[in-house]
Design goal:
Elements: H1 11-20, H2 53-62, H3 66-69, E1 76-77, E2 88-89, H4 120-124, H5 129-148, E3 156-157, H6 181-196, E4 211-217, E5 224-225, E6 228-229, E7 234-235, H7 239-246, H8 248-255, E8 261-264, E9 268-269, E10 272-273, H9 278-288, E11 294-297, H10 301-306, H11 315-325, H12 334-344, H13 350-366, H14 390-403, E12 405-409, E13 424-427, H15 451-456, E14 462-465, H16 478-487, E15 490-496, H17 517-527, E16 532-537, H18 545-549, E17 553-558, H19 566-574, H20 615-618, E18 636-640, E19 647-649, E20 666-668, H21 669-672, H22 674-679, E21 682-690, E22 696-705, E23 717-726, E24 731-738, H23 740-743, E25 746-747, E26 753-756, E27 758-764, E28 767-774
Parallel strand pairs: 3-4, 4-8, 7-9, 8-11, 13-14, 13-15, 15-16, 16-17, 19-28
Antiparallel strand pairs: 1-2, 5-6, 9-10, 12-17, 18-21, 20-26, 21-24, 22-23, 22-27, 25-26, 27-28
Length: 775
């Protein structure tokens, strides 16, 4: 979610509505508090920038009446004129660029577009934290710019979505960094650091540039599947799965990314709505993880606690439940309507409202919105020329190129030699519609070219047939497509999914291509002079076993939803101007996986019942394509360096606590202690060589595995990754820093972590290195 009251409207319609809006001239200065020209300002302690923010906020809240306090608890917070406090709109979106969704940003002024980066699932496929940081940084810069020119009424963005893409049918999986907890965690950290204005290493100097919000907390990855709705779903999750799957991205987002917002989700977890769960919000996020920011509800989630969910007995009870649990802000007006009566009925205290207001106003002050005119602050120099800058548009192209995954390349069909392609046939419903490149939560892009348009710049004699009316492909013009295929040198097909197949509030029921797409693809492939190239646009995985095995389909690319530069990125890869290096951030399952209910939250397989488990860490079936799979136009080799550590010794003097009732000698990491765990740090060095004819970026993925899968151990788990650029024939050494208490430990059934004695294996590609833990 992020703004989950969203009703699905075609992006094309939204962009059309935007274009026909009249040009509105906004104030060149955004609203701000503590105007130095106001004679009262010197007398307000909350305006004194020399005081600590806590004291400033306490002064402000102490001046408010209850009638002034309650309206501040909704996402549209009204002005408080007598104190010179302007209105504020908390809800804006910046998932992969400034978005049309939300209330806080307006594109009908002098700024009418923003850089549209690839949808998150594709960006994650680069496995490149530096790239993720730069994208967050660019979006944060554009956010400040549009605010500074007066076309934004807030600097709080309800992004990123760091839920685990656990089920391939989830319509919102496209918004996430994928199925792996470590990947999602690192994405959260670096995107948030970039957007909020921190350094890559996490250093913060000065005020926040913008506020990021990690959502949807927690165990949320089903929207609308076979009559099951996210609004009422009760996710039954074990402590073990919470510890090693669902919670790590949120913990990292808070502890390392220092996100200033967390959004609680619609669903219940083990019977309790997340927005009313004191254990999740106050005890865990604020207490254990040290969260410093505000907690927002998903849109209308509080209303559902009394309404559709039926958890609370009255509206006032619902409001009291969430505020007492630790929620601060309601997306919607439900808390604004009922908080006052909840106080009058004795169900909610004014002091609890004060706590929420303290978190909200603290954030606005940290953004510099109570420091006088933004023009006189450091971030006041960021203006419209930062939006759609050449640097940002080049970054959008880089991100799309680095994420696209080459799934098949029989007989090195790709790349095509431009000089040898005299005619080209382009077929498919996703080839010539620009908005389909964006994915959901998109905004108006700076510019764009469709895949067809980009390919026409490479081959003058390029002809196009849609083949299907749309991705649903309920009707097709197979004969026209076949005739075109017979008449040209090469055929490229653009198929897959779109937002009518997968999106917020729409999960899939199948994993195969929709409608008549498979028939169209096979017919064209059978008629073409040469093996065809298949390009898939999709957020979620698709069972394309037929294409994988079909010899008349020579090349397959997965391009996700590649953003405004996606058409050019695809063309550059097909014609060899860029060497693909993306790796799949999700498992591609066979159609038979759809027998597994989306509502079953278990991660681990259960052989007794035939339950196959989920994600590469626990899935016991045969995938169509595995997590981390991706080809290149070159080949790479790996070798563990000779100096790699082979033994880890734990101090005998440590008060180690062994696990009970286990045949595997294991010790709780808590009993080892943080200091001792820190001293166990080791390095694993891997030499990587590019053996092929082309330079390329290559993500090196380091996994660990155990000798057996007993006691719920993962099949393997990703513990490190780095992206390297190697020229043809070049070698490099990649060094991974490892902390055994973190990367080599596992979760028990009760959610505690243990480190097993004995063998652990580090894995890169087909190479393994054994490490023995000795107590």
């Amino acid at each position: 979610m992020g703004a989950d009251r969203e009703l699905h409207v075609l992006s094309a319609l939204l962009l059309l509505l935007l274009l026909v809006q009249p040009l509105i001239v906004f104030s060149s200065t955004p609203p701000f508090a503590c105007d130095p020209t106001n004679p009262s300002t010197p007398y307000y302690a909350f305006c004194k920038t020399t005081l600590p923010i806590d004291k400033r906020v306490s002064d402000l809240v102490s001046r408010l009446t209850l009638e002034e306090k309650v309206p501040q608890l909704g996402d549209v917070a009204p002005a408080i004129p007598r104190l010179g406090v302007p209105s504020y709109k908390w809800w804006s979106e910046a998932l992969h660029g400034l978005s049309l969704w939300g209330r806080g940003i307006h594109f009908n002024g002098t700024i009418r577009s923003a850089t549209s980066f690839p949808q998150v699932i594709l960006t994650a496929a680069s496995f490149n934290p530096r790239l993720w940081y730069r994208i967050g940084q660019a979006i944060g810069m554009e956010a400040r710019a549009i605010y500074n020119v007066g076309q934004a009424e807030g600097l709080t963005f309800w992004s990123p979505n760091v839920n685990i893409f656990r089920d391939p049918r989830w319509g919102r999986g496209q918004e996430t960094p994928g199925e792996d907890p470590m990947t999602a965690s690192k994405y959260a950290v670096y995107f948030v650091r970039g957007l909020q204005g921190d350094s890559f290493r996490g250093r913060r100097s000065g005020q926040l540039k913008a506020s990021a919000c990690c959502k949807h907390y927690t165990a949320y990855d089903m929207d609308n599947w076979k009559g099951n709705s996210r609004y009422t779903f009760d996710a039954r999750v074990t402590a073990q799965d919470m510890e090693d799957t669902y919670q790590p991205p949120f913990r990292s987002c808070i502890e390392q990314g220092r996100a200033t917002c967390v959004m609680c989700s619609y669903n219940r977890v083990n019977g309790v709505p997340t927005c009313a769960d004191y254990n999740l919000l106050s005890k865990t996020a604020r207490g254990l993880w040290g969260f410093n920011g505000y907690i927002a509800s998903d849109c209308d989630a509080v209303a559902l606690i009394y309404g559709a969910d039926g958890y609370a007995k009255s509206a006032e009870d619902a409001v009291a439940d969430v505020i007492k649990a630790g929620m601060d802000l309601n997306c919607g007006d439900y808390v604004q309507k009922y908080a006052g009566s909840a106080v009058k009925e004795g169900k909610l205290s004014e002091s609890e409202i004060n706590r929420a207001l303290h978190n909200l106003f603290s954030l606005r002050m940290r953004l510099g919105l109570f420091n006088g005119s933004p023009k006189h602050q450091a971030s006041g120099t960021i203006f419209a020329n930062q939006i759609c800058s050449k640097e940002h548009q080049d970054l959008a192209l880089e991100a799309a190129q680095d994420g696209i995954v080459l799934l098949k390349n029989t007989a090195n069909l790709l790349p095509l030699a431009r000089s040898k392609v005299t005619s080209l046939g382009v077929i498919g419903p996703n080839a010539n519609v620009g908005y389909k490149l964006l994915g959901n939560y998109g905004g108006p892009p700076c510019k764009g070219v469709t895949p067809l348009g980009a390919l026409q710049t490479y081959v003058g004699s390029t002809r196009y047939v849609a083949g299907c009316d749309r991705a649903a492909c309920t009707s097709s013009s197979i004969n026209d497509a076949v005739q075109l295929a017979k008449s040209v040198d090469y055929v490229i097909m653009f198929m897959g999914l779109d937002q009518d197949q997968e999106r917020e509030d729409l999960d899939r029921v199948d994993l195969v291509l929709p409608g008549m797409q498979q028939t169209l693809i096979s017919s064209v492939a059978g008629a073409a002079k040469r093996p065809i190239i298949l390009v898939l646009l999709s957020g979620g995985p698709v069972d394309i076993t037929f294409a994988k095995l079909d010899g008349s389909i020579g090349g397959i690319l997965w391009a996700g939803y590649p953003g405004e530069a996606g058409g050019l990125a695809i063309a550059r890869i097909i014609f060899g101007d860029h060497n693909p290096g993306g790796r799949l951030p999700v498992t591609w399952y066979p159609q038979e996986f759809t027998r597994v209910p989306m509502t079953d939250m278990r991660m681990r397989a259960d052989p007794a019942s035939g339950y196959p488990g989920r994600t590469y860490r626990f899935y016991t079936g045969k995938p169509v394509y595995r997590f981390g799979y991706g080809l290149s136009y070159t080949t790479y080799s790996y070798e563990f360096e000779a100096e790699a550590v082979t033994w880890i010794y734990l101090n005998d003097s440590l008060p180690l606590q062994a696990t009970a009732n286990s045949d595997i000698p294991s010790y709780h990491t808590a009993s080892i202690g943080s200091d001792a765990c820190g001293k166990l740090k080791l390095s694993a060095a891997v030499s990587v060589k590019n053996h092929g004819p082309m330079a390329g970026k290559h993500p090196v993925l380091l996994f660990s595995r155990w000798p057996s899968l007993q006691h719920g151990r993962p099949v393997k788990q990703l513990i490190g990754f780095k992206s390297v650029h190697l020229e043809a024939g070049e070698s490099t050494k990649v060094v991974f820093s490892l902390w055994p208490c973190q990367q080599l430990s596992r979760a028990l059934g009760d959610g505690t972590r243990v480190l097993d004695r004995g063998s652990h294996f580090l894995v890169v590609g087909e190479k393994e290195h054994e490490i023995n833990v000795v107590f």
